[in-house]
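Contributing new records

If you add data, match the layout below exactly. Sequence lines come first and carry their own label; structure lines follow with theirs. Keep one chain per record. Anything else will be rejected by the validation script.
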Amino acid sequence: MWTQILEQLLFALVLFKIAIHYWWIYVPVTVFFVFKSLWIFYLEGLYSAKPRNSGMLLEIKMPREIRKSPKAMEQFLCNIYNTKSGRGFIEKWWFGKALLKFSLEVVSMGGEVHFYIRTPRKFRNIVEANLYAQYQDLDISEVEDYINEFPESFDEVSNMGFNLWGTELMLGKSDVYPIRTYVEFESPDEDKSLDPVSALLEILTKSKKEDRIWIQLLILPASPDWKDASKEALEDIRKDAERKMTTTMGEEERVMTSTQLTPGQRDVMEAIEQNVAKVGFNTTIRIVYLAPRDTFDDSLANKGVRAAFNQYGTQNLNYFTKNRDKDTDEFLYFFRKWRLKDRKKKIYFDYRTRNMKESSFMGELITSLPFHFAFTNNPPVLNVEELATIYHFPTFLVLTAPMLRRVESKRIGPPAGLPIFGSENEK
């Protein structure tokens, strides 16, 4: 035993001497990668802070009755995806050009439900024009951020006497497996059709007067590379369906393989192929509940809102689950008080700033807190049909009408000559 310990110590000593002797190799390489990561974080921050790229909040007020299905929202999202543009070497490493995100938000303020879309300012006219193209009677207006009724830091919110619960949702399987979408809620018989958003709205209208429930879907156009994983998923299903049979021909035995898919396996393969056939967005789903400490009861948000998302899950495809690294209700074994406080600070900050996962290692490190690191999994990809299922304007099938912000008069149409695209030479 002592011999083994001595050998391990000698080996460690040799490694230490090698590290000291060859520092001139690995130290410059490490510094280079750290600087590169910092540079990207700095440039992308400057790019996002430009006036035209900064976010603005649009409130959407709906007419008394919407008879369009979530397909209209799906078409809107397809058009928003086209705001994605490539970036060359100079644009990335000198101008810091990055993809700009949108945020689809549903908010309950004391039981009154509001729909918002946060967009980069330069895309405002694109967003409005495409919304009006699908929903002619909407009322769209820029409003002050509802978050501003609370201070910027969670410490100040806590000093006001408020407590917070928050979480982020992620997919239980690979994002090539789809969730249940609005198509499965529809029926040729109108009386049997369901609006999947009705369960969520019903829960939001039940919050108390001083309660706030915030839900945001941060979306960023995804690279088509996310679809590559579908090949592996389909191949795995085929392998599971393989049956090996041994046959005897004369004196020779042969092993033959046949693939016999069950009806369930065929359905899964078809669902995967249909899922990746549509464009997708990197999606962060974040839920925050705020209430006075003396009336704080997170069951409505923690159980109710999450239960509304459970309706999109299926046993053989995909489902939503909470991100345990972000959840403020997760049991923490060590330094629980400090870790829980930092989790609340982080999710409050991320919601306020509409922050997604940083694209650089140093960005994640800098935005971390002493008792809560910002390192997390990449956000899942949801295609436009899945997103439209979760976020769309309630149809006539939703009975929770009195507590929704409505527009009282009918809209005629957008002004003629409404500008859509900004100047092409602006970065």
